[in-house]
Design a protein that fits this description.
This protein has helices at 2-12, 83-86, 89-94, 107-126, and strands at residues 39-42, 50-53, 71-74, 79-82, 98-99, 103-105. By secondary structure, the chain is an alpha+beta fold. It has one domain: Ribbon (Cysteine Rich Protein). The chain is elongated, with a radius of gyration of 17 Å. The protein binds zinc ion (2 copies). One zinc ion is lined by residues 28, 30-31, 33, 52-53, 56.
């Protein structure tokens, strides 16, 4: 019952995806479901890292399943494109800001992250002030 309430409350303040850990940042950028397994992230300075399930980590253009070293991210289009597609003329034109930088996240790291997200949710609900400030440790 309590958990139920917590979920509704957390969902209702559909947080903007901004700095720090936002309460919804455990969601996959592709399917919007929470990620509770090893996954892929695209770290962003001062912004919530983007993350994907492995099964959701696909090229936008050819839908091929990707590995980190073959994936590129377009900040402006917010899409993943594979290296092969990135060399095609039409893709190159449409996605002019492709960058590498994806990282693998282990199951353990993801669990630690989920705990921090849960913390954020609690903080959002109770307005607790004395939770250690985030963004201090760069790991
Ligand atoms: Zn997903
Ligand atoms: Zn592709």
């Amino acid at each position: 019952m309590f958990l139920e309430t917590m979920k509704v409350r957390a969902d209702s303040n559909t947080s903007q995806r901004i700095h720090g850990i936002n309460p919804r940042s455990d969601e996959c950028w592709e399917c919007f479901r929470s990620i509770e397994e090893s996954c892929v992230i695209y770290p962003r300075r001062n912004l919530t890292d983007l993350r994907w399930h492995w099964k959701c980590f696909k090229c936008y253009a050819c839908s091929q399943d990707l590995i980190i070293t073959r994936a590129m991210w377009s900040v402006s289009k917010q899409r993943i494109v594979c290296i092969s597609c990135s060399k095609k003329d039409n893709i190159r034109k449409a996605f002019q800001d492709l960058e590498t930088g994806f990282e693998r996240v282990t199951l353990l790291t993801q669990y630690v992250f989920l705990v921090r997200v849960a913390f954020e949710r609690l903080q959002g609900i109770w307005g607790t002030e004395d939770i250690p400030s985030r963004g201090q440790s760069s790991d």
